[in-house]
């Protein structure tokens, strides 16, 4: 079964690299019929058959957490696969095989790549996203309002929309409104690591995305990218817009009748 993230890569290659169906078939190792099916829909149709689970599956988040912590440990004091296997046995009563653990760890480490963030960006390449929080005076009293900000790295052109919450549904609505406002879609969208977009942080820059956000990226064919943990300076343009929102636009405290007018 083709996963949502591969759908997104194929659709981005079609949109950004202008690859033909034959070229996509050759690169991604799918039939032309399958490629046409992927280009015709943003995500796979639900698949009912369930695969047999492995004893290591429930412990994958534990392994991911160990590998993530190892990134900050001295190189000679990081876990080997054998050490993780022994910890799983001792701390979680793992009764499965060592090979299952070793193969999962090897797969995670193969996907880890060091990423360098360019200081200059081409037009249409990079859009940065973040939330700012401001207090607004409503007739019933003052309350804090989350504001979604989208900012182009090339031009520093912003879009802002007040939302009722920071839940996934609100984020998706706000991003669609932003794309409509700009009249185009970027090649990349950068976030910090909000749980409503990234439920799980894996090794390095790998992320497990919320399935609805993954579907949005596949539909609009942008690449979902994220800052390193606690490194918001990797998206400086939107960080500056958040400060401008709070210190300039929202000072003095705005007065509104309802959220729709914010």
What do these coordinates show?
By secondary structure, this protein is an alpha/beta fold. The chain folds into 3 domains: 4-39, no CATH class; 57-111, no CATH class; 126-261, 2-Layer Sandwich (Nucleotidyltransferase, domain 5), CATH 3.30.420.10. Helices cover 40% and strands 16% of the residues. It contains 9 helices and 7 strands; from the N terminus they run H-H-H-H-H-H-E-E-E-H-E-E-E-H-E-H. Strands 3-2-1-4-7 form a 5-stranded mixed beta sheet. Strands 5-6 form a two-stranded antiparallel ribbon. The longest helix has 15 residues, at 168-182. The termini are far apart. The mean pLDDT is 87.
Number of helices: 9
State the CATH class of the largest domain: Alpha Beta
Low-confidence stretches: none
Main β-sheet description: 5 strands, mixed
The shape is globular
Rg (C-alpha, Å): 22 Å
Order of helices and strands: HHHHHHEEEHEEEHEH
Give the proportion of residues in helices.
40-55%
Number of strands: 7
Mean pLDDT: 87
Determine the strand fraction and express it as a percent band: 15-25%
How many domains make up the coordinates?
Answer: 3
Side by side, the strands of the main sheet go 3-2-1-4-7
CATH topology of the largest domain: Nucleotidyltransferase, domain 5
Instruction: Please tell me the CATH architecture of the largest domain by its name.
Output: 2-Layer Sandwich
What is the CATH superfamily classification of the largest domain? Answer: Ribonuclease H-like superfamily/Ribonuclease H
**Ends distance:** 44 Å
**Class computed from helices, strands and strand pairing:** alpha/beta
